[in-house]
Amino acid sequence: MHVVQLRRYEAGTSQPTLDVIRKLSTALQVSADMLLFGSDERGPDDDLRLQFEAVSRFDEEEKRVVRSLLEGMILKHEARRWQNVSTNGGERK
Question: In what helix (H) or strand (E) does residue 34 lie, and over which residues does it extend?
Fold first, then answer.
């Protein structure tokens, strides 16, 4: 990739394709999220960051349990949101 093209991306005058983002993330050894989002846009809130760091040290079985608990809570939250949509005439909250 030419330096001129990188400058266009940085200046916002051009947008990279998905293939370019994939190649950049591989070359730079970072996730595509790191290229696409700011450092604070996709991570957990500060109040959950320490808990997630602690969970990252769990063994695989403990991580599986935490994932199951989180999935259940997320599903419960989404179901409640969709129930509010149907009872409030289509407004999502």
Answer: helix 32-36
- Residues 6+ positions from 62 with CB-CB distance below 8 Å: 55
Residues with Cβ within 8 Å of 66's Cβ and at least 6 positions away in sequence, in order, are 55, 58
Q: Is the pTM of this model over 0.90?
A: no
| Structural domains in the chain (count) | 2
Residue 47 placed within a domain: no
**Structural tokens at position 14:** 């051009």
* Residue 92 maps to a domain: no
The DSSP call for residue 88 is T
Per-residue pLDDT of 37-50, as tens digits, reads 877 777 777 788 88
Residues counted in the chain: 93
